[in-house]
Amino acid sequence: xxxxxxxxxxxxxxxxxxxxxxxxxxxxxxxxxxxxxxxxxxxxxxxxxxxxxxxxxxxxxxxxxxxxxxxxxxxxxxxxxxxxxxxxxxxxxxxxxxxxxxxxxxxxxxxxxxxxxxxxxxxxxxxxxxxxxxxxxxxxxxxxxxxxxxxxxxxxxxxxxxxxxxxxxxxxxxxxxxxxxxxxxxxxxxxxxxxxxxxxxxxxxxxxxxxxxxxxxxxxxxxxxxxxxxxxxxxxxxxxxxxxxxxxxxxxxxxxxxxxxxxxxxxxxxxxxxxxxxxxxxxxxxxxxxxxxxxxxxxxxxxxxxxxxxxxxxxxxxxxxxxxxxxxxxxxxxxxxxxxxxxxxxxxxxxxxxxxxxxxxxxxxxxxxxxxxxxxxxxxxxxxxxxxxxxxxxxxxxxxxxxxxxxxxxxxxxxxxxxxxxxxxxxxxxxxxxxxxxxxxxxxxxxxxxxxxxxxxxxxxxxxxxxxxxxxxxxxxxxxxxxxxxxxxxxxxxxxxxxxxxxxxxxxxxxxxxxxxxxxxxxxxxxxxxxxxxxxx
Amino acid sequence: xxxxxxxxxxxxxxxxxxxxxxxxxxxxxxxxxxxxxxxxxxxxxxxxxxxxxxxxxxxxxxxxxxxxxxxxxxxxxxxxxxxxxxxxxxxxxxxxxxxxxxxxxxxxxxxxxxxxxxxxxxxxxxxxxxxxxxxxxxxxxxxxxxxxxxxxxxxxxxxxxxxxxxxxxxxxxxxxxxxxxxxxxxxxxxxxxxxxxxxxxxxxxxxxx
Lengths: 537, 209
Description:
The complex is a heterodimer.
Chain A: H1 2-8, H2 21-26, H3 31-59, H4 70-89, H5 92-105, H6 114-136, H7 152-155, H8 161-187, H9 200-232, H10 245-279, H11 286-299, H12 315-343, H13 352-375, H14 377-383, H15 387-417, E1 419-420, H16 423-450, H17 464-494, E2 496-497
Antiparallel strand pairs in A: 1-2
Helix pairs in contact in A: 3-4, 3-5, 3-6, 3-17, 4-6, 5-8, 5-9, 5-10, 5-15, 6-8, 8-9, 9-10, 9-11, 10-12, 10-13, 10-15, 11-12, 12-13, 13-15, 13-16, 15-16, 16-17
Chain B: H1 17-48, H2 50-57, H3 62-87, H4 91-121, H5 129-134, H6 137-172, H7 182-207
Helix pairs in contact in B: 1-6, 1-7, 2-6, 3-4, 3-7, 4-6, 6-7
C-alpha cells in the first residue's frame, strides 16, 4: 500500500487543494509544502551568496585591483554577509527541515498555526525583496558590513535603508517560525510522545525556537533605531549628538551572538539523528545532548561581549565574557564526544549522509577550537579583525551549519521527494566540496596569524601564496556544489522510487510513506512505553 | 488511497484555545524584549546624562501623562470585562465593552496628538534646528528617546485598535463565541501588554526627577 501511495500521488507533492499549480504551493498551509518553499528560496539565495563569495575570492587572487575596486569589494562582502546570515543560515535548518520534519517526528498532522507558518514564508520573501531593492536601486549597494555598525550605517551614502528594513522583516519571519515550533512541540505531540522520547532534532529545534523568540526582537529594535537615526537623526548612536556607537555594538551582538546558536543548534540536531541511524545504535548520552542543547541556548545569551574585546570595554567585563565564552564551548564538546561514542562498536553503514556528518564533526571541531583562540583575551588582540576570524566563522557557520544542511538534505531527501539520489555522484560531490572547503578556508587561518586583515580588497605581496590556494579552493568548492545540486535536482525528478525507510531509522517520519501523505499519518501514531527514537538494539 | 487522488484535501480544523493562548504569551515575550532593548538604551543614557534628563523631563506635561495612564488602565479593565461577558454568553455586552475600549484607545491617541503637537510647536522634534542649536546632548537624547518610545507605543495602540476591530466583527458574526474565544482573549492580552508598557514609560519620562 505504501508503494501505491508513492506512485499514485496522493501525497503532499501532488495533491490538489483549493488552488492549482503554483498558487497551490505559495498559498499552501501544509508544513511540508512550506518547507519546500523555504528550501527553494533559501537555495536560490545561497547560490547568490556563493557567487558573491566567489567574486571576492577572485578579487583576492592577486594583490591590488583584480576585478573590482575597494568600494565594490565593500559592497560585495556586505551583501554576501547579509544574504548568507539573514537569509540562509539563520532560517536554514529550522525553516526547511524543521518545517518538513518536525510535525511528522512528533506524530502531528501539521504545526500549531499553519496560516502563521505560511505568513512566515511570505515575510521571508518580503525581506528578500527588500534587501534586493537595496542592491538594485538607489545610490549603490550597502557597504557597511552585514553588522550595520554605527556610525557607518547612518553616514554611508549608499542605499542602506531597505536592507536594514529587510533584515528587520526577516527577523520577524524568524520569530514567527520559532513561536510556531514552540507551541507545536508543547501541544501537538502524539500520545505517548513524552519529552524524554522526543527525537534530538526536535529538542534542538525547541532550544533554537526559544533563542529566535527572545533574541531576535533586540536586534529588531536596534535596526529600527538605525533606520530612525538615518531618517530623522534621533541621535541614539551618533556621537555628535551624544549617542554611543559602542552601545549599538552591544545591542547588535545581544542578538547576533545567540543567532550563531540559532544556526548551529539545529545542525547539531540533524547530526544527532544521522549518526545513530548510520551506526544502527542508540545515541550515546541522550540526556546529555538535551542538557547541552539547553545549556548552549541559555549561556549563548551571555557571551555577546566577546565580539567587542577591542572596542572599548572594562577589564572586568572582558574577563567575564572570556570566561563565559570558554564555558559555552563545553556543551558543544560534550556533543562531539557523544557522537563519537555513538559510533563506537556500532554497525556502521557508510552512506552519503554519514560522510557529511563525519566531516561536519571534523570542521566543527576545527571551527570550535579556533574560536577559543578568539575567546581568550591575549590572543584575540593579536588576531582580531584578521583573516583568522573569517576562517573561524566560516568553519563554524559554513562548515558547521552548511555541512549539516547537506547531511540533512541527503538524509531526508528520499522521504521528501520519494526518490533516491545517485549515491556515487553524491559521494563525489561531497568529496570535491570538502576538499574545496578545506583548501578555501584553511589558508586563511595562516594568513590571519601572519597579520592579513579582513575586509580589504588588497593585500601585501607576502600573502600572495595563501590567497592563491584559497581562491583555487573556492573554485573546487563551487564545482562540488554544482555536482551536488545537479545530482539532487535530477534525482528529485528521475531518481529510483525510494523505500519507506531506506536507512532503517527509528524515528516516526520513516514510518510514513515516501513522500508523506497530506495529513502525514493515516491514523494517529501512539508511542509505547518501550518505543524510542533510537531503540536499535 | 486511490480515491483520494486529486480530491480536494483540506486541513482539519486544528482549533485549540490553549495553543492560541501559549502563542500569544510567547509573542508578548518578544514584545517585552523589543521594548527591553529601548529600556536598556534609556538607562544607559540616563546614567550618562542625569542632569540633562532631569531638565528635559520638566518640559513634559505630567497631567496629560497621568490622564492617559488612568484612561488606559480603565480600558484594560473594560476589555477584561468583555472577555468575561463573552464567556458568560452576553454577546451584546461583550461587543459594547470592546467598543468602549476602542474609544478609550482613540482618546489616548488624541491626547498623544496634542502632546506631540505642543512639542512640535515649540520646535522640538528629532533633528530640529532648535534641538541641535539650543539643547545639550543629554536633552537631545532624552527627546529622541521620548519620540521613539512613545511613538512605538502609539504604533502598538494602533495595532491593538485594529485587532479590536477584528474582534468586534468576530463576536458580532458569531465566529468568536464562548467556545472559541481566542481572538477576543488574545486581543485582551495584547491590550494589557500595551497598557503594561505604558505603565513603565510614564514614570520613566514624566515622573522620575
